[in-house]
Design brief:
By secondary structure, the protein is of the alpha+beta class. It contains 3 helices and 11 strands. It has a single domain, classed as Protein Transport Mog1p, Chain A (3-Layer(aba) Sandwich). 26% of the residues lie in helices and 32% in strands.
């Protein structure tokens, strides 16, 4: 039980979101990159599936990964949390609640607007102690589209990789991949994390 509580605490500190949204409008997305990737996982995936509460989004976990029972420790927006066998990486699946301001930004700026709003929420949650790493970019996998971005603690913490997307019925989702250090084990390299994250996104259906 203590291990589960620690995992939830670590995830809450690094990737869970607040409800306060104050975003400066920047509708010009001409400087953002769009890349097309193969809609096939680069690593072996398991048969363990993640399904949203509304049933409009599913994904598969990497092989040997397993779900953590989040009980009442996480935000109501979190519907699944999974970790790797070494407890060095976590995947958090979130359904973002809509508000009028939220919807107006997304309607105006699409997925890039959604990524900026989500990043701003991370910053608000951390009292401004979160900084973005690089620029968000659009990922195209077959007929699926995501915007991927990365952020970390302003104090130099480890980076969290995140992607947001809009389902076929208009729901907003975020998937985040975060490193965890509480076991003191060597962490996967950044390229390994990229491969894992791309593989998970390749299994997403919405």
């Amino acid at each position: 039980m203590n291990r589960i509580r620690y995992i939830i605490f670590a995830l809450t500190a690094s990737v869970l979101l607040s409800s306060c949204i104050v975003v400066k409008k920047e509708s010009d997305t001409s400087g953002y990159q769009t890349i097309s990737l193969s809609p096939k996982p680069e690593i072996e995936m398991s048969e363990n599936t993640v399904r949203s509460i509304d049933g409009d989004m599913i994904a598969f976990l990497p092989k040997e990964w397993f779900f953590v029972d989040i009980e009442d420790h996480a935000s109501s927006e979190v519907f699944a949390v999974a970790v790797n066998p070494d407890y060095t990486l976590s995947l958090v699946f979130m359904a973002r609640k809509k508000s009028q301001q939220y919807s107006e930004i997304v309607d105006s700026e699409g997925l890039f607007g959604l990524s900026r709003v989500v990043l701003d929420m991370h910053q608000k949650k951390a009292g401004g102690a979160v900084t973005s790493i690089g620029k968000p970019r659009k990922i195209e996998m077959g007929n699926m589209e995501f915007v991927e971005f990365e952020f970390a603690s302003s104090a130099g913490g480890l980076g969290t990789k995140a992607a947001c997307f809009i389902s076929s019925i208009g729901n907003y989702y975020e998937i985040a991949l975060s490193p965890m250090t509480f076991r003191g084990k060597p962490l996967p390299t950044n390229s390994e994390m990229d491969m894992i994250f791309r593989s998970v996104l390749a299994t997403v259906q919405f």
